[in-house]
Amino acid sequence: MSDPTKEDELAGTEQPFVAHLVELRDRLIRALLAVGVVAAVLAVWPGPAALYDILAAPLIAHLPKGATLIATSVISPFIVPLKILLMAAFLIALPVVLYQVWAFVAPGLYSHEKKLVMPLVISSTILFFLGVGFCYFFVFGQVFSFIQSFAPKSITAAPDIEAYLSFVMTMFLAFGAAFEVPIVVIVLARMGIVPVEKLKEFRGYFIVLAFIIAAIITPPDVVSQLALAVPMCILYEIGIWAAQIFIKHTKAPEEAEKPPEEAAKP
User: pTM score, two decimals?
Assistant: First the structure.
């Protein structure tokens, strides 16, 4: 016979777990619906083809006169604009997606932790968009101009649209993630994983690390590597400065009441 006490304990722990799964499912559905609605709107206006033209504009502007992108696969003219449509829909719906994540984790946080999380959700979204925008409006133009300046006159550039999409997505993710450096620094400092003083001491190593990451992720040209590494170094410094402000304004009540020397003790 089974112990009724154990059954009650299992019943008591299973229900909250199931409830969390149901809520997680609902949050995921809402996030997917947001992406789907935005995708439907973009499909009507401006349309997948127009979105691709917008994305390809920085490259087209630096191709030789009369040159265009090519499709080496039969279904590429259909699949590639569709992928761009979904990518654009996800980026536009990103605030809603992150809000669903926030709404799911918020009930389990203390009030002082909520003061930290919500600003981080908003700022991480803004920083990601800034990284993507910086890449599209500044980096692409510089990189394509630099690459075309080295192209021999006997070669006519005609990039493949799938290769270009892969390049763009890699660069967007790289710059979007790179602009999240302040968020990572703030979280590490606020959670007590790495003290602010250690982060300051690590800045020299971070500069080297930033250039190594830029050399691995970006194309093998100096322009794109500098365009990624330099902002990462600047954002690291901003993260250290912001971390000190966040730590000051998001202390738990008991931490705020302690004297400085006592609050510093583990």
Answer: 0.79
